[in-house]
């Protein structure tokens, strides 16, 4: 079958490889689409993602597809089922798994990171991480269930009431997801800060954003927010996030910085404003919520998917040669 294999540092090759054998508790998924994200950029550049990817490996941890084979012990899924796969597999036995925080598992493995993922015609996954896609959700939209689930996990770590005013910093795909999610969770006002005027206008016109701040144009963000989601990962946006808070605020540090990155903040303000500063790592127990949000229409991702690439085009995208991308996905079979 056709696969895009990561053979080393920044070395991706389209190859014809054998289909992997199927375990008794696994299903085989014929890939419809596979999303490409910042983690893939990191892994491609030899940096760790949620775990280390050891070449040769097929990336693609965001995916959707159709089951083409089920293992001997599998009863809940059948050939032909439309599915999406949560890439993260927890050992279930470490201190963190045993205390209800599986995302912090000491022995995390992941489809498309530590075992072959969706950048190939078919991949396998343990049935415990496979989810049915609701009938009214396209496989194209279901491809991004994983990033939605990361955002949903972040949302679950915060406390929401309708009265709050929220700010999202970051006009990329994740920031845009948070814009919709905050409203789905009942927050009455969502503002957006970014650097791409078109994106800011688009989210105001289409997705209910109240105020926008183009910080590249020097527009100042007021210190007036109960909830701030930082979805960029740069020191300056992390500083902006803390500075945009009012008393009692919660700050979600969702963006991923460089491993040795630091930013400065006024710790007296953390005390005086009684701030909560929260990190968020991957997406435990969030796929059902994400699929429900897609199915109910509270989350509309189709307008955010800007590019459908062939497997052979992924390298150019990761090298930054394709511009104007909001969210890129690879079209593998393109099944509906
Ligand atoms: N915590 C998690 O589990 C998790 C999961 C997925 C992604 N992330 C992280 O979230 C961040 C956003 O992801 P993404 O997929 O949207 O990334 P992206 O690369 O698509 O978008 C980044 C966006 O940031 C905007 N930006 C750059 N500088 C800015 C600034 N100074 N102010 C405001 N916006 C600015 C850019 O215009 C771009 O749209 C990344 O750091 C990513 O690694 C975290
Ligand atoms: Zn564990």
From TrEMBL:
<protein>
    <submittedName>
        <fullName>Threonine dehydrogenase related Zn-dependent dehydrogenase</fullName>
    </submittedName>
</protein>
<keyword id="KW-0862">Zinc</keyword>
<dbReference type="InterPro" id="IPR011032">
    <property type="entry name" value="GroES-like_sf"/>
</dbReference>
<keyword id="KW-0560">Oxidoreductase</keyword>
<dbReference type="InterPro" id="IPR020843">
    <property type="entry name" value="ER"/>
</dbReference>
<dbReference type="InterPro" id="IPR002328">
    <property type="entry name" value="ADH_Zn_CS"/>
</dbReference>
<keyword id="KW-0479">Metal-binding</keyword>
<dbReference type="Pfam" id="PF08240">
    <property type="entry name" value="ADH_N"/>
</dbReference>
<feature type="domain" description="Enoyl reductase (ER)">
    <location>
        <begin position="8"/>
        <end position="335"/>
    </location>
</feature>
<dbReference type="GO" id="GO:0016491">
    <property type="term" value="F:oxidoreductase activity"/>
</dbReference>
<dbReference type="Pfam" id="PF00107">
    <property type="entry name" value="ADH_zinc_N"/>
</dbReference>
<dbReference type="InterPro" id="IPR013154">
    <property type="entry name" value="ADH-like_N"/>
</dbReference>
<comment type="similarity">
    <text>Belongs to the zinc-containing alcohol dehydrogenase family.</text>
</comment>
<dbReference type="InterPro" id="IPR050129">
    <property type="entry name" value="Zn_alcohol_dh"/>
</dbReference>
<dbReference type="InterPro" id="IPR013149">
    <property type="entry name" value="ADH-like_C"/>
</dbReference>
<dbReference type="GO" id="GO:0008270">
    <property type="term" value="F:zinc ion binding"/>
</dbReference>
<dbReference type="InterPro" id="IPR036291">
    <property type="entry name" value="NAD(P)-bd_dom_sf"/>
</dbReference>
């Amino acid at each position: 079958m056709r696969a895009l294999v990561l053979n080393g540092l920044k070395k991706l090759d389209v190859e014809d490889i054998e289909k992997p054998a199927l375990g008794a508790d696994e299903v085989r998924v014929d890939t419809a689409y596979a999303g490409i994200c910042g983690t893939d950029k990191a892994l491609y550049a030899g940096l760790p993602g949620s775990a280390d990817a050891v070449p040769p490996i097929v990336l693609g941890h965001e995916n959707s597809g159709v089951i083409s084979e089920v293992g001997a012990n599998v009863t809940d899924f059948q050939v032909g089922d439309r599915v999406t796969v949560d890439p993260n597999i927890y050992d279930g036995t470490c201190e963190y798994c045993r205390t209800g925080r599986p995302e912090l598992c000491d022995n995390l493995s992941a489809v498309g990171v530590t075992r072959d993922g969706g950048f190939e015609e078919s991949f396998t996954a343990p049935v415990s991480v496979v989810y049915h896609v609701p009938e009214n959700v396209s496989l194209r939209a279901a491809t991004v269930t994983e990033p939605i689930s990361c955002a949903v996990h972040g949302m679950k770590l915060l406390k929401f009431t309708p009265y709050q005013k929220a700010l999202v910093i970051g006009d990329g795909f994740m920031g845009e997801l948070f814009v919709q999610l905050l409203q789905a969770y009942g927050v009455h006002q969502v503002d957006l800060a970014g650097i791409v005027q078109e994106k800011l206008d688009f989210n105001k016109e289409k997705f209910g954003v109240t105020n926008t701040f183009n910080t590249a144009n020097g527009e100042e963000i007021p210190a007036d927010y109960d909830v701030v989601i930082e979805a960029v990962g740069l020191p300056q946006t992390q500083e902006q996030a803390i500075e945009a808070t009012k008393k009692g605020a919660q700050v979600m540090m969702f963006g991923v910085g460089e491993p040795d990155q630091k930013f400065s903040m006024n710790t007296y303000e953390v005390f005086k404003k009684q701030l909560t500063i929260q990190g968020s790592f991957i997406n435990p127990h969030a796929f059902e919520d994400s699929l429900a949000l897609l199915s109910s229409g509270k989350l509309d991702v189709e307008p955010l998917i800007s590019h459908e690439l062939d497997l052979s085009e992924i390298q150019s995208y990761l090298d930054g040669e394709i511009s104007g991308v909001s969210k890129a996905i690879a079209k593998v079979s393109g099944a509906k």
